[in-house]
Write a structure and sequence with these properties.
9 helices, about 30% strand, Uridine Diphospho-n-acetylenolpyruvylglucosamine Reductase, domain 1, 5-stranded antiparallel β-sheet, alpha+beta, 2 domains, globular, Uridine Diphospho-n-acetylenolpyruvylglucosamine Reductase, domain 3
Length: about 350
């Protein structure tokens, strides 16, 4: 275990914003967490687990412990005829975990290839791409509870996973640290390639009966085409969630904008790509000072030079306002903004 007071978080996030934590802590073994009450006043300090910091914006300094849980290990818990239960430590790099699963013929996660971050962060944000979400395969989580100084298992149903969110990034933020995650994966490949962009890419490549490996390579290629490498250009991927609106409103939008993409979500709801909305408002490839949007994807905010969390949020608020004024849709951030109350777009624009 290593810790440092009043420590910079700049190198711990993909946006590389200048924020500090009251304490910055690294743990390599879950058992080290049990020592924290001896070392820190946990009744006063929240504990924020941070993977690769690839989906977070610090608007201010963090008044608690920012913890990097560098736990490693992947093992098979049980194998049944059709499924297998895999346990992975929270610090495992997500993409490498997906590769390991494919190598061992554990299927289901190939659509989630190349998503930055760690295994522990995946259920926190319920990561998803190309028609697949982590919640479809999540079985349970081992967590350390700051308030009890104890480990216990949470079933997936208790984690409250929803679209790009969970109770782990809302109600339990600052309280629970994930140490291990269990997934129920498939022993027989059942490739998902019905997502329009992925389907079109494979058909253009004359792949009409794709294997799981074909889907994996297609996803990697598509993500590299669309998204900037955060090591080269600081970003956190998609900044906003794709809004989900009532079908009646989507139909009204389609009458006004016949080209608007719509994806039925069931129960009378429709998903509309936030990137499309932002492009219609002219935000693709726009730069203001040190911040801007990626030239190939309006949904990706990037830092072209030194900036602050507040400056980035003020720019994001302009995007929010333009979409709201034109389409009547209030975009929600997909990135985790800390503190959460820093995201007040109307106030940021005053």
């Amino acid at each position: 275990m290593e810790w440092e007071p009043n420590a910079s978080l700049q190198s711990w996030t993909s946006f590389r914003l200048p924020a500090k934590a009251a304490y910055r802590l690294r743990c390599t073994q879950p058992e080290e967490l049990l020592r924290l009450p001896e070392l820190f006043p946990l009744e006063e300090l929240p504990v924020l687990p941070l993977g690769n910091g690839s989906n977070v914006v610090f608007a201010d300094d963090y008044p608690g412990i920012v913890l990097r849980a560098e736990f490693r290990g992947i093992r098979c818990i049980e194998a049944e005829e059709d499924t297998v239960c895999i346990e992975a430590a929270a610090g495992e790099p997500w993409h490498e975990f997906v590769v390991t699963c494919l190598r061992n013929q554990w299927y289901g996660l190939e659509n989630l290839a190349l998503i930055p971050g760690t295994v522990g962060a995946a259920p926190v944000h319920n990561i998803g791409a190309y028609g697949v979400e982590v919640q479809q395969f999540l079985e349970g989580l081992q967590v350390w509870d700051r308030t009890q100084n104890a480990f216990y298992w949470l079933p997936a149903s208790a984690a409250g996973l929803s679209y790009r969110s969970s109770l782990l990034r809302t109600q339990f933020l600052g309280q629970l640290v994930i140490t291990h995650v269990r997934f129920r994966l498939l022993r027989r490949a059942c490739p998902r390639w019905d997502y329009p962009e992925l389907h079109g890419f494979l058909r253009a490549a004359h792949v009409f009966h794709p294997s799981a490996l074909d889907v994996f390579h297609a996803v990697v290629t598509l993500r590299r085409r669309k998204l900037p490498d955060p090591h080269q250009l600081p970003n956190a991927g998609s900044f906003f969630k794709n809004p989900i609106v009532p079908q009646e409103y989507a139909e009204e939008l389609r009458r006004r904008y016949p080209q608007v993409p719509c994806f039925p979500q069931g129960e009378g709801m429709v998903k509309i790509p936030a990137g499309w909305l932002l492009e219609q408002c002219g935000w693709k490839g726009i730069r203001q000072g040190s911040v801007g949007t990626w030239q190939h994807h309006a949904l990706v905010l990037v830092a072209y030079g030194p900036t602050t969390g507040r400056e980035l949020l003020r720019f994001a608020a302009q995007l929010w306002r333009s979409v709201y004024e034109r389409f009547g849709i209030a975009l929600e951030p997909e990135v985790l903004i800390l503190p959460p109350e820093a995201w007040q777009p109307e106030e940021l624009l005053r």
